[in-house]
Amino acid sequence: MNINEKLKSLNDHDAISLHVPGHHNHTIGYLDEINLAMDMTEITGLDDLHQPESCIKMSMFELNRYPGYYGQYLVNGTTVGILSAIYAVAHLDGEVLISRNAHKSVFNALNLTKQDAKFMPMTISDKTNQYNGVASLRDLDLNNIKLAIFTYPNYYGETFDIEESIKILKEHQIPVLVDEAHGAHFGISSYFPKSSMTYGADIVVQSYHKTLPALTMGSVLYMREDLEIKANIQQYLKMLQTSSPSYLIMASLESAEKFYKQFDDQRFKYNRQTFIETMENVGFEVGSLEDPLKLIVSYRGLSGFEIQKLFEDVHIYVELCDYKFVLLVLPLWHESDKFPFEDMIDRVRNIKVNVEHQLKEEVQFKLPYETDSTMYRYNNIEKTKMMDLNTSYGYIAAEDIVPYPPGIPVILKGENIRKEIVDSLLQWLDRGGRVEGILNKQIKVKDEQ
To answer: What is the DSSP string of 321-338?
Structure first.
């Protein structure tokens, strides 16, 4: 089945989206304003994203939620904003300070520019067993830092006191980049967390397409107007973004910004509560996080992989699953949306759990994440070989090892492979998880010969 056939098959089964993108199968927002006939190029009057002077400039002028910030459309996703910011400081002396739950684009940019980085001390969430924030930076040596990069919120919608971290870095005149990919909707009402721009972050990249009704790859880069490296970042954006930017993506970003400013949260709060109560009546346990747009759903005795199948059997698709729960990304329900809410409620009520196949005891499993502050060094490993994962401990990894979900590396290229990580990865794979960098339980390592 090819791509068109698979997508059509999902539509034919009236698939319900509890995952990104934020338009949830074209049921949320104002994307009806856009049609395929608007897929054009830079003809007369349509301006140029790389040097906006008319309609694109006017459209981006509406990215004015936060005084003192300049908003820039991105058509290559949040990744290109992160790459451009890291390229912009490559010529400066010093190190980049990063959180351990940095997106892989951060590590790719460091490798491309051959820069070293220092890891922040991290905290682990009791709810998700994922990095959920940064421990205090007060005791960290910040004298040689040229840029600090945070992930806020994490993939699961968990936040931390980023205001305090930004305050400390400001005291040292260190610019702050926030990967706010999953927080484009932050501040849309008082019911949701605030954006890091509220606390003075210098550069913030938001994936509008993840939680707002925009087309996939549509993101926005915000920079403080007085940012010293602003011109450098814009120059790299010209180099790294496509020379044929999609007008459909840009139009959807404009539409999503209008949606943000007109949103009323009353329908969302009512639907969310109704949905939670319905799932709990079926027997699911529902966990809330700092971001009310995200929910974690478990069922005693079942793994997350089994719960995902229960939902997919009634053609409801979740964002991700792990050993214990599934993660749902809720739509920003609003008046006159087209989301099949009542249909979804009926499908959830009809989920049948086969108790005979439940696990006899709770699954206890944790990936061994590092929390201390250490260094990340650029590594150029030329000679490599493939070997069995279960005998690889003690060797040097030749590429990043990234379990999905949530896409956070547990082994970085150049790091020593520890036995406890190997044991955890084998359990993860045996339970149905997947790991980027491991294929058929084979891993690429440095060839010492």
So the answer is: E-SS-EEEE-----TT--
